[in-house]
Specification:
InterPro entries: SAM (IPR001660), SAM/pointed_sf (IPR013761). By secondary structure, the chain is mostly helical. It is built from five helices and no strands. It has a domain of 71 residues: Orthogonal Bundle (DNA polymerase, domain 1).
C-alpha cells in the first residue's frame, strides 16, 4: 500500500506523513492491517504525539466505513441480479412449456421423436436414386 498517499489525507505536515509512512513500511503493514489500528498500536510503533495518533485513527475509521459500505453494496447488487435472473429463467421456461389455452401450466417432459425409420427410408431412396443414375 502507498502509505504516503493514504496519510496525506490527514492534515499532518508532509515531513510527518513521510516519516510515518516509512514507519508503516518498515513494520511491513498492509491495507488490511488498518482495521487493527488503535492508540496503543500506533504508540508502540513510535507515533508518540497523541494528536497525530488521533488523526491517523480518524482516517482509519473513515476508510473502514467506506470499505464496509462498498462491500455491502456489491453484495446487494449480486443478490438483486440473481433474483432477476431467476425470474427471467422461470418466465422463459414457462413460455416454452405452457400453452395459452391451458388453464394450468405444469412442466412436462416431451417424448423424444424417433427418426430412425425416416432416416432409413431416406437412405434407401437415396441409394436407389444413385444406383439408377449410374
Amino acid at each position: 500500500m502507498e502509505w504516503c498517499s493514504w496519510l496525506s489525507k490527514t492534515s499532518l505536515e508532509p515531513s510527518l506523513v513521510y516519516e510515518y509512512a516509512l514507519t508503516f513500511t518498515h513494520n511491513e503493514l498492509v491495507q488490511d492491517d488498518i482495521a487493527y489500528f488503535d492508540d496503543e498500536f500506533l504508540q508502540s510503533m513510535g507515533i508518540f504525539v497523541a494528536k497525530h495518533r488521533q488523526k491517523i485513527l480518524k482516517l482509519a475509521k473513515r476508510d473502514q466505513k467506506k470499505s464496509t459500505t462498498s462491500s455491502r453494496n456489491h453484495m446487494l447488487w449480486l443478490i438483486v441480479a440473481i433474483k432477476q435472473a431467476n425470474k427471467l429463467v422461470a418466465k422463459r421456461l414457462k413460455m416454452w412449456t405452457c400453452r395459452p389455452d391451458s388453464i394450468s401450466c405444469n412442466f412436462a417432459v416431451a417424448p423424444l421423436r424417433n427418426y430412425s425409420t425416416r432416416w432409413k427410408a431416406a437412405m434407401l431412396k437415396r441409394n436407389t436414386k444413385l444406383s439408377t443414375d449410374n
